[in-house]
Design goal:
The protein is 46% helix and 20% strand. By secondary structure, it is an alpha/beta fold. Strand 2, helix 2 and strand 3 form a beta-alpha-beta unit. The chain is globular and about 50 Å long.
Length: 254
Amino acid sequence: MIKLGTAGTSGLGYEAGLSKCKDLGLDAIEVEFTYGVRMKNDEAKKVGELAKKLKIELSVHAPYYINLASEDKSKLAASKKRILESCERGHYLGAKYIVFHAAFYQKHSKEECCNIVKEQIEDLQKTIKKNKWNVVLAPETTGKGSQFGDLDELLKLKKETGCHICIDFAHLRAREGKIDYDEVFKKLKGIGHIHAHFSGIEFTAKGERRHLITEAKDIKLLLDAIKKHHADITIINESPDPFGDCVKTKRLLK
């Protein structure tokens, strides 16, 4: 099954955004806490109740200022606090996946960074379990070579911690300079439901620069691969016009 949704509401607010999602025949919205978790629990509960009524699935994107491999203890503590605040709001929203960019390598080797992130994920999971928050951590594939989060690293992390992962196809393309969908979906076989991000992407040799409107030819390539591999997937569009690109994707699906 292919479900389509938007990253945020393009400034409409969640009541109007959810209604627009329903009117357009979309399936999901990712609640964006880009610069901080500013939604209160009571507001999250109201948004979640409306989403449930409209049968719109919710997920959460935690703030961007996160580095679980930071050697600065205050930055590490702040990173974990932002993720846990996102988890708490996600619980009240009725959202399942809590998406975030996990870390930067900095002075660490890839293996060292992976071990550090694993340890922090396990610690976060203990707090989630203790608070009985009904959410799942989903670290995201990242778009720059300086960031922890290539596909193999995240699949290893999932296997070792039981977390889920978010596959950002645009980031994979920017990180490697290209994307082989057959190779990606073969690696994802057996993962269960795929929570994914997609958009157009501008990138350099160092990786992603910015998200762009998603071109029809790129959408078709992804849809063809999803159908070929019979993937069960939710695609959250992160372009500058997520509603428009979701409608475009829906049209191409038909």
